[in-house]
C-alpha cells in the first residue's frame, strides 16, 4: 500500500516535469525532416556490416549538430555523445541500421531498387525490418536534444548499431561486438533505451513488456553416430535416421512435459534433418539443426541440460551415440522491471495512457539484449501500421510486402526524447 502511494506521487511529479520540457515545438518542427531522412535511407539500404553510406549520413548529421562523433565502431557503427548543461548520469539510445536481402514489392515513391551480393548470390536489398525508421527517429532525437542541452541533466549517448540481423558468416558484428569494443564505457552508460517499429501495431500506439520481452535464441546441432549397413539389412547396423526421429520427438516432450509453461513460453524447433545418400543405405551418421527460444534463464538452462541428456540417453537406448552442441546465442531481451515502471509515465505522457499497451512476450529475438546484459535497459515497440489499413491487412517483417507508415515516426521521436530526458532528470 505504501509503495503504491509513493509511486503515485512519483508519477505525478514526473508528468509535471515532462510538460515542463517544452520540447513539443522542436519535436513537431522536425517531423518533415525525419520523414525525409527515412525515405532517403529506405531508398538506399545496405546489408549487415556493409552500412557504409548509411553510417556516413548519420555521422555527418551528428557532426553538424556539434555532437562528438566516433565512427567505425563494430565495423560501421556510429556513436554520438551529447553533454547536457547540467551534470548527471549517462543514458544511451540505440538504433540499428542494417537492411535485409529482400526484394521490395511495394509500390512506393521511395521504393528500394538496390541490389547487392549476399553469400555469392545477387539479391535485392530492402529495409524490410524498419531499421530505416529507427535511424531517422534517432537522428531526429539527436537534433531536438542538441538544441536543448539546457534541459539535459547528464549525457546522452547515441548508438547507431550495424548488423542487428546478424553479421555475415565468418564475421563478428552487431550489439555483441559494440559492447566488446566498449560502447558502454567512456563514459559508462547507466541505462539504455531502444525501440522497434512494428508493422502490426497501428500508428500512435506503443507496446511493452517488463522482464523477458523477446526471447533468447540459441542455435543447436545434434550429431548422431550409428553404424552403416545395407538398407535391406538393418540388423547389421545402427540406424542414425531412426534415432534422429526419436530425438526430434523427445525434444518436444521437454517443452510439453517438463517446463513450467505458466511461467514463460519456450520453443524448440528442429529446422533441418540431414543424413544418408540414397534409398538403400543406412548411413553412418545423421544431424539435426534447430533453434531454442526461451524467456527465462533458469528455463533456458533446464532446456539445454535436458536436451543434452535426452539426446544421449535416447541414442544409447538404440545403441547409437549422440552429442548436442548449443551456442550461447542471443540473450533474452530483458526489460529491467524498475526501469520499465519508472519510464512508463514518459511513454504514457507522449502517446496517451490508453495507447500504451502491456503485451505478452515475443518469441523472436533482438540483439539489444547484449546491452541489457551489462546495464539496465528498456526496449519497446512503436506502432508503424497504416491507420487506414484494415485489421486483416498485414505487412509482415522480413517480407517483400513489409510496410511502415511515416506518420508513426513522430511518436518515436517524442518517446525516445522523453524517456532519455526523464531518466536523467529523475536520477540527477
Ligand atoms: Zn529483423
Ligand atoms: Zn529489426
Task: Summarize the structure in short.
By secondary structure, this protein is of the alpha+beta class. The chain is built from ten helices and 18 strands.
Q: Could you state the order of secondary-structure elements as H and E?
A: HHHEEEEEHEHEEEEEHEEEHEEHEHEH
Structural class: alpha+beta
Question: Total strand count, please?
Answer: 18
> Could you give the distance between the termini?
27 Å
Helix content: 25-40%
Catalogue the ligands.
zinc ion
Average pLDDT reading: 94
Fraction in beta strands:
25-35%
Uncertain spans, ≥5 residues at pLDDT below 50? 1-16
Oligomeric composition of the shown chains: single chain
Largest sheet: 8 strands, mixed
Shape, per Cα inertia axes: elongated
Strand order of the largest sheet: 1-2-6-3-7-18-8-17
Q: Give the count of helical stretches.
A: 10
**What Rg is obtained from the alpha carbons, in whole angstroms?**
24 Å
Write a structural description.
The protein is an alpha+beta fold. Helices cover 36% and strands 27% of the residues. It contains 10 helices and 18 strands. A hairpin with a 3-residue loop joins strand 1 and strand 2 (77-83). Helix 1 packs across helix 8 (337-351), helix 2 (24-43) packs across helix 10 (409-426) and helix 4 (131-146) packs across helix 10 (409-426). The chain is elongated. The two termini are 27 Å apart. Mean pLDDT is 94; it is low at 1-16. One zinc ion binds next to loops.
Q: Key terms for this structure?
A:
binds zinc ion, elongated, single chain, 10 helices, alpha+beta, eight-stranded mixed sheet, 428 residues, disordered N terminus
